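Would you be willing to look carefully at the protein I have copied below?

:::
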Amino acid sequence: MKHNTEVIKNVKLALSEDVLHGDLTAQLTPDIPDSEAVIICRNHAILCGQDWFNQCFLELNSAIKINWHAKDGDKIKPGAIICNIVGSSRSILTAERSALNFLQLLSGVATKTQEYVDCIAGTKAKILDTRKTIPGLRYAQKYAVSVGGGVNHRMGLWDAILIKENHISAAGGITPALKKAQSFSSKAKWIQIEVENIDQLKEAIDAGAKMILLDNMSLSDIQQAVVLNENRAVLEASGGITLPKIRAIAETGVHRISIGTLTKDILSVDLSLRFLNYKNN
């Protein structure tokens, strides 16, 4: 139910900002009721965003039919036709950009995530996202991360506690911050605290931390942290992690690796809509 609600909310906003009172340019064209178009993929990609894509067309015209040749999570090759669309040519033209925006963006997130996931295959580490998402599209982007094989971190400030540097400073230190958080832990799925060095890690473990984020630590410090931790807490590496570095980090034995670039620095997948029979009969 939440998925459908989020999809509809995202699509209504997208169509409102793009179409608003109507598509002026589409009125220049004849409206062919049984036009057929295809979506062509130009890159190697992981497909993601079908529900958002479908909703863009159905929101404008419920009679439009979409026949998919792949599903979310499938690997797509350049030149592949991923779906056929049949219906009013004007409706197809009007929905085209919003629908492609969702599909290109979410496929881009899923594709990048899969690249990171593949790179650490065989280790026990999991790839996680962050809150560095496009405003209004957090659920959609986190869905795309999961389609790409990643794991979602907290959805927002409301569902879990991540005690970061500024929180620690304001609360008077690692131990006081943890104790305060633990006093109302029933409101949160989990409590995680950020540390920047080995001394802070030791203090966090001694204070009873069950999840610890190793922020911008060197590879040698991460290795030391894993040994010192002895699996007492879930360790997550984060900060400045790139594809060339990630395998070595995963092999240290950390449980999780969070990467902001999955949803922040996105290379959208190149998709095109082309009509097959768009002519004035």
